[in-house]
Amino acid sequence: MEDLGVTADFWRGRRVLVTGHTGFKGSWLTAWLEHLGADVHGISLEPVPGAMYEKLHGWKHSSTYDDLRTADLDRLVREISPEVVLYLAAQAVVLTSYEEPERTFSTNVMGTVRLLNALRNADELKSIVVITSDKVYGDRHRDFSESDQLSGSDPYSGSKVAQEAVATSFRQSYFEGKAGLVTARAGNVIGGGDAAAYRILPDCVRAIRNGKALTLRHPNAVRPWQHVLEPLRGYLMYAEAVARGPSALPTALNFAPYPSSTASVQTVVDTFLGAIHRGHEVEVISHTPEDALHETGHLTIDPAAAKDAIGWTPALDLTASLEWSAEWYSEALKGGDLRAMTTRQISAYEELVR
Predict the structure, then answer these.
(1) Given this structure, which CATH class describes domain 8-353?
(2) Whole-prediction pTM
(3) I need a labelling partner for 270 at 20 to 30 A (CA). Which of 113, 163, 279, 291 fits?
(4) Cβ pair 291, 150 in contact under 8 A
């Protein structure tokens, strides 16, 4: 299928509920939706100090700070009456899931259950895209497609496999013939604004800020790296296609780069530090301790179905993705206008894929 892109006329004035809108991907998605003129409503925990969401002033959307596990979601859904839901809320860090497995499962599974249950009676709802993860495929060495068996080998991936099961059961039990409910699985996402712990580019930037060495736990681990705007474009295109109602659409799609953008952690770090101002100051120590917690060593996923179903293909290679990321973080390091930088990169990306 030809790449249909993101249709501005579809999103303009559209009531969109974004969960996890204060997170890294959520901030970029909310900024893009506002740029498109959507009527955005966010439900999320409060942003962590120093998060991208805090740094981008001038937000236009309505925002509710609450926990999906305890919030009055029936009331919020009635008040918002969403037409499209993009579910990004998550405990999204693998190493944190080892430290806090109960919070990981309750957030990623029961948060999804509670919101989908509240959405059952949303009369104007057209589409729901639940964002899971490429980690649902386990750690066998191959290019995974949407038909492969799901397998969770750590608390995070296990919680995402369970989230997929929740989406399937709600789709078949409550949403058949109503709103389209699908899941999206993205490869590793990079880009300016990420501030999470245990993430490679934020770790690089923290090393620059603090003047400390950067230790790589799994330097040879291979991932499908992509700029944050790549999967977000996929989510928007998928949600739009589902809302328009073609029944033949797949119920799950992968969004990932071509094999040329699959690289080791060491390669990503070396390229990023070479592109960012002051990156030459960072000492990099590559060391995997014997007692390191398990993380998938080699993971790649096949995005062919997304091209066939909705026309989505990657637009940025790994080098460009890292250069765009370095440009954003360089602006942050010098105290520049990050709202302007974010808008500029969104506009440049729109031009690229037009």
Answers:
(1) alpha beta
(2) 0.93
(3) 291
(4) no
